[in-house]
Specification:
52% of the residues lie in helices and 12% in strands. The protein has 14 helices and eight strands. It has a four-stranded antiparallel beta sheet. Strands 3-4 form a two-stranded antiparallel ribbon.
């Protein structure tokens, strides 16, 4: 039983990896190979589980039938003339999620062997307390809220925007070279008289931020640095606002206003002038060498090259460079809200909040 569960876990990890690959790099061949690979592995898995021959035969037939349907959907709906009026971007997202259909079939067909149902007795029903009812009610309302947010976040417009943006990214090579100007660095060096470094946590309302919030359950999903109080030198890793390639880019406060309830929180910490200069010099070096946004790193927590980062990874790396990090965490595992939530010794000082109307 343990080996079966272990094998299922490995298959699920493989499926998750294939989903990411298909989402970012999928073409007709890759979709077909991924579907066929998962089908063959699930058929092999079928002969390892403790089921009757009839059940195994049913599973194999279902896997092959679903494979044929998925290949047809891929060829027509994603890379062909289209199907049922579904936009190509939405069809690709559906095609990616179809990876998990064999796992759903396996779960439904073999569910009875691995799960037992225990129905409560009349005494247990009678002793069901108001406190339990209230807790369950709160849980139900919580789930309803999550579903409501999911409908808003995974909207057709958001998914279309994300899928249109994906081809602009690269997690393997530097694609942003020199987006920061001399004017930016002049302004940054002028801030050396300000004895503070500013950390900005933002709730922007961008399509990517909305989707990320579903998995993090956090409102604030972007982190930036600024060298001055008035936020004229904001810097971070981002998508470039369709002006510059994704990677290390300057930011303006106006960029954060992408929805009615968007907001930013600004914090500061003391920094010596020589440390601030060190950070600006490092940013100048990255700008010259090149950079890219670590999109795959959000999932796999890995950077292919030193200058391929996502926003919170960049902010944490800069703090470490200046010996200002106040919590210990792997760079690729840092979330934007960690800078506030893990500030146990109160190294940060709240400065102000901006709400966009």
């Amino acid at each position: 039983m343990y080996r079966i569960k272990q094998l299922r876990s490995l298959l699920n990890l493989l499926a998750a990896f294939l989903m990411v690959v298909l989402l970012f790099y999928g073409d007709t061949t890759l979709f077909a190979l991924a579907y066929i690979l998962i089908t063959l592995l699930m058929i092999g898995h079928t002969f390892r589980i403790e089921e009757e021959s009839k059940t195994r035969a049913i599973l194999v037939i279902l896997y092959i039938s679903v494979l044929a349907l998925k290949l047809a959907f891929s060829n027509v709906g994603i890379f062909g003339k289209g199907l049922f009026g579904i936009p190509k971007s939405a069809a690709k997202l559906i095609g990616v999620t179809l990876i998990y259909v064999p796992f759903l079939i396996d779960y439904l067909v073999t569910f009875k062997r691995y799960t037992q149902f225990f129905f409560p007795s009349m005494e247990e029903i009678a002793s069901f307390s108001f406190h339990q009812f209230r807790n369950n009610k709160e849980l139900i309302f919580s789930k309803m809220h999550v579903v409501s947010r999911a409908r808003k976040s995974i909207s057709r417009d958001n998914i279309d925007e994300i899928l249109r943006d994906i081809p602009r990214h690269s997690s393997r090579k530097y694609i942003n070279n020199g987006s920061l100007t001399e004017a930016y660095f002049n302004q940054a060096y002028e801030s050396l008289s300000d004895p503070h470094l500013y950390i900005i946590i933002s709730n922007t309302g961008s399509a990517a931020s909305e989707v990320i919030s579903l998995f993090t359950s956090k409102e604030y999903n972007h982190a930036s640095l600024s060298f001055d109080h008035d936020l004229k030198t904001i810097i971070s890793y981002n998508g470039g606002e369709n002006v510059y390639p994704p990677g290390l880019n300057a930011e303006m406060v106006e960029y954060f206003n992408k929805k009615n309830d968007a907001s930013i929180m600004v914090y500061k910490m003391r920094i010596a002038p020589e440390k601030k200069r060190l950070l600006i010099d490092e940013i100048k070096k990255i700008n010259a060498e090149g950079s890219a946004y670590n999109l795959l790193g959000l999932v796999f927590r890995y950077s292919h090259k030193p200058n391929i980062m996502f926003c919170s990874q960049f902010v944490y790396k800069m703090l470490k460079l200046a010996d200002l990090q106040y919590f210990d965490k792997k760079e690729t595992s840092v979330k934007p809200t960690d800078f506030v939530e893990l500030d146990y010794k109160r190294q940060l000082e709240f400065v102000y909040e901006i709400h966009f109307q």
